[in-house]
User: What shape does this take?
Amino acid sequence: MRKYLLAILLVVFTLSTVLIGYETPQQVSKMKVFFIVKASESEFWQIVLDGARKAAKHYGVELIEQAPTSESDVAKQVSILETAISMKPDAIVLAPTVADALVPGIEKATAMGIPVIIIDSAANTDKYVTFLASDNYKIGQLAADELAKAIKKKFGEAKGKVAAFTFMSGVGSLEARMSGFLDRVKDKYPEIEVVTVRDAMGKQGNTLNMTMDVLTAYPDLRGIFANNQYTGDEVVRALDMRGVKNLAFVAVDAGPQELWGLENGYVDALILQKPWVMGYAGVAFAVIARNLQPLGFEFPKFIDTGVVAIAPDMLGKPAAESILDPVKFYKNW
Assistant: This one.
């Protein structure tokens, strides 16, 4: 991973020293990059921003961080993007909360010559430079495989009733994860029945109540899938409150409660993206795009930033360190 980041650093350094002779490229040390994420209250987005800050420090660019407080405040994110465009930065890095609402702003910025780098979740437009993200459909598929494995380990066979939780309908990344999960269960595990798919409607606290309801409604439930940090954290709280450890549970991301659950027998696997790398690469590609796009360079429309499953037996091992605690891992890099 460090070799990957060093390669990006070398490219950006080359741009800053070689391309200055062209009229359109911008000197890296004078660049301003707007970095807009989905929510300021999320641990996941704080990790993304830490990677972005490290990249900005490495490249000497000015980073302007913006985010609504909650992922449910889509109107605020739209407003932030409009403000960013009005300031005419050298590039914008954006994690769209929903696929449609940010499209006018993305297309306006692109039309004005401002490179837009999309991260984490897709937008329903192709008017951007590149899209850096995990393959969210594959995240759902991997979650289904890990849940089936856990059910088999605990109950002797991959069979029985399971529930699935999403944080908010309409969010591109979450929709893809859920589709991947449901399709995989249907195609590969015919004896596993998804008895309910619940939506927290973008509100923290709802998943806690949803979990309690599902545990009561389905006393023979064998597994739960939660497709992001908010849902994962709250399922762990509910299982802890009920003292339930004989249930297979797989979640996405690595929130504090999710990690505690992994350490204490409530979580069988966490499906993790690489948010720190996503943040770092977002800034790096913003710089590259600002200097290469005017010269006609074609960027790939999608760049996979990777995903990995972490089980309890991997805790404390070097292979998991950069994934579980990237802020600490890259602190002195």
Summary: Confidence is low (pLDDT under 50) at residues 9-25.
